[in-house]
Automatic annotation (TrEMBL):
Protein name, as recorded: ABC transporter ATP-binding protein
MF (Gene Ontology): ATP binding; ATP hydrolysis activity
Keywords: ATP-binding, Nucleotide-binding, Transport
Organism: Lujinxingia vulgaris
Domain ABC transporter: 9-235
Amino acid sequence: MPPRSPNAVTLRDVSRVFGRSYALHRVSTTLAAGSITALLGNNGAGKSTLLNILATVDAPSDGEVRFGKVAFRDFARRGRARIGWVSHQTLVYDELTGRENLTFFGQLYGIPHIQKLAETWLERVGLSAAADRPVGTYSRGMKQRLTIARALLHDPQLVLLDEPATGLDQAGTALVSNLLGELRKEGRIVVIISHNFSLIETLADNVLILRKGQLRASGPLPPGTSLISHYQAHA
């Protein structure tokens, strides 16, 4: 039986070592339900490594990660269905239509009445008119919209987004912004990596800034401080 959806994810002194180098070094933080956390840092700061650990596709070398009351190893084995992940790869199939992609992934998750739910998500991400076209004919932005629908289709509690606005035009970015606001209201735990500071500044409840694998700043953006100046001071 899968574990219950976590109401928080807690990291205590989490490190990840590759060879003799620390990709993460003693990172501690709590990600609360009903919040959006921005994960920022320069290239090589450890952002993707941390997101991979939260997605349970990589394990920490040291420290503790708990999903609610569930330990990392147990959640990795039984709780992945509670996670929705948008990575650099779209993880959708070019030879299938948009509708077929969502139906396929929904069936993998055992979602009942998936055809109706797929239709709902195609509409939510603005792809109803292209639902029955092969995804190989989609633009990059259209594929990204479908990827977001694929990641949220199964109603995950923990939502991990690595550059979700990639390839999106202004309308697509607004769609992402609206979806993130809805996820927060629904009590999800949302973690986002993005270079779109205007998107982050308007949405993030908390900002984590990594530098060379170490957490240099954690918490809400200080009042009267712009995100760019906060980032430049700590990254």
